[in-house]
Amino acid sequence: MAACLVYVTTGTFAEAQAIGRAMVKERLAACANIVPRIVPIFWWDGDVQEGEESLLLLKTADRQVPALIEAVKAQHSYDCPCVTVLPITGGNADFLGWIEAETASGG
């Protein structure tokens, strides 16, 4: 069993809530956490941009990652959404087991 943290940025808090709720409901993620306001500074369309986004963190089993990425992309408002996967290399074994159990029937 391997767990992952999926880092997603969204244009609004409501979008983060909708995507997070859908991923948990579909059991593609065991849990979604939302940081309501982050300020990105980035290159886009040949210029440096700055804006306001929400950060969505999804905790899942690595076997769910491909389906989760596709589901996030299907619901996301951005043309090229930030969806990155960070492996969880350690932590509370009980919590990591909970992630595995809660995503066992997803996808």
Structure notes:
The protein has helices at residues 13-25, 65-75, 93-102; strands at residues 3-10, 31-38, 41-44, 47-50, 53-61, 83-88. It is 32% helix and 36% strand. It is built from three helices and six strands. The chain is of the alpha+beta class. The relative contact order is 0.31. The radius of gyration is 14 Å and the shape is elongated. A hairpin with a 2-residue loop joins β3 (41-44) and β4. Strands 2-5-1-6 form a four-stranded antiparallel sheet.
Q: Layout of helices and strands, plus pairs?
A:
Layout: E1 3-10, H1 13-25, E2 31-38, E3 41-44, E4 47-50, E5 53-61, H2 65-75, E6 83-88, H3 93-102
Antiparallel strand pairs: 1-5, 1-6, 2-5, 3-4
Which key phrases capture this entry?
107 residues, alpha+beta, four-stranded antiparallel sheet, two-stranded antiparallel ribbon, 32% helix, elongated
Mean pLDDT: 96
Number of strands: 6
The proportion of residues forming helix, as a percent range, comes to 25-40%
What would you report as the Rg, rounded to the nearest angstrom?
14 Å
Strand order of the largest sheet: 2-5-1-6
Largest β sheet strand count, sense and barrel closure: 4 strands, antiparallel
